[in-house]
Amino acid sequence: MDTKKILINLKNVSFSENIKSACIDADMIIIHTEWNDFKALNFKKLSSKKNVIIYDMRNILSPDKMKKDKINYFGIGR
Length: 78
Prior knowledge:
Elements: H1 3-8, H2 19-23, E1 28-31, H3 36-39, H4 43-46, E2 53-56, H5 63-68, E3 72-75
Parallel strand pairs: 1-2, 2-3
Protein backbone atom coordinates (compact mmCIF):
# COMPACT_ATOMS: atom_id res chain seq x y z
CA MET A 1 0.00 0.00 0.00
CA ASP A 2 1.44 3.40 -1.01
CA THR A 3 1.37 5.66 2.06
CA LYS A 4 1.83 8.83 0.01
CA LYS A 5 -1.30 8.06 -2.04
CA ILE A 6 -3.31 7.56 1.14
CA LEU A 7 -2.12 10.84 2.68
CA ILE A 8 -2.92 12.83 -0.47
CA ASN A 9 -6.60 12.38 0.34
CA LEU A 10 -6.19 14.08 3.73
CA LYS A 11 -6.96 17.79 3.99
CA ASN A 12 -4.20 20.24 4.94
CA VAL A 13 -1.39 17.72 4.36
CA SER A 14 1.51 18.70 2.15
CA PHE A 15 4.80 17.13 1.18
CA SER A 16 8.16 18.86 0.83
CA GLU A 17 11.24 17.88 -1.09
CA ASN A 18 13.61 18.82 1.74
CA ILE A 19 13.75 19.92 5.36
CA LYS A 20 14.26 23.61 4.56
CA SER A 21 11.16 23.91 2.39
CA ALA A 22 9.12 22.05 5.02
CA CYS A 23 10.16 24.44 7.82
CA ILE A 24 10.33 27.83 6.10
CA ASP A 25 6.74 28.95 6.84
CA ALA A 26 5.95 26.52 9.64
CA ASP A 27 4.26 27.68 12.83
CA MET A 28 5.32 24.49 14.58
CA ILE A 29 8.03 21.92 13.93
CA ILE A 30 7.81 18.46 15.46
CA ILE A 31 10.99 16.42 15.43
CA HIS A 32 10.23 12.75 15.74
CA THR A 33 13.49 11.22 14.55
CA GLU A 34 17.10 11.08 15.70
CA TRP A 35 18.54 11.56 12.23
CA ASN A 36 21.72 13.62 12.11
CA ASP A 37 20.09 15.78 9.41
CA PHE A 38 17.90 17.32 12.10
CA LYS A 39 20.62 17.59 14.75
CA ALA A 40 22.68 19.87 12.52
CA LEU A 41 19.92 22.32 11.56
CA ASN A 42 20.03 25.98 12.51
CA PHE A 43 16.37 26.56 13.29
CA LYS A 44 16.90 30.26 13.95
CA LYS A 45 17.88 30.72 10.30
CA LEU A 46 15.66 27.99 8.93
CA SER A 47 12.26 29.32 9.98
CA SER A 48 10.99 32.64 8.71
CA LYS A 49 8.54 32.86 11.63
CA LYS A 50 9.93 34.53 14.73
CA ASN A 51 7.57 32.68 17.05
CA VAL A 52 8.02 29.16 15.67
CA ILE A 53 7.47 26.39 18.22
CA ILE A 54 9.65 23.28 18.18
CA TYR A 55 8.61 20.04 19.85
CA ASP A 56 11.56 17.69 20.11
CA MET A 57 10.15 14.22 20.70
CA ARG A 58 13.64 12.64 20.76
CA ASN A 59 15.52 15.31 22.76
CA ILE A 60 18.19 15.67 20.10
CA LEU A 61 18.52 19.45 20.42
CA SER A 62 20.13 21.45 23.20
CA PRO A 63 17.57 23.27 25.37
CA ASP A 64 20.27 25.80 26.31
CA LYS A 65 21.01 26.59 22.66
CA MET A 66 17.31 26.90 21.85
CA LYS A 67 16.86 29.28 24.79
CA LYS A 68 19.92 31.29 23.70
CA ASP A 69 18.47 31.53 20.16
CA LYS A 70 15.10 32.60 21.66
CA ILE A 71 13.24 29.67 20.13
CA ASN A 72 10.08 28.31 21.75
CA TYR A 73 11.44 24.82 22.39
CA PHE A 74 9.92 21.88 24.21
CA GLY A 75 11.95 18.73 24.76
CA ILE A 76 9.36 16.07 25.55
CA GLY A 77 10.17 13.78 28.47
CA ARG A 78 13.03 15.78 29.98
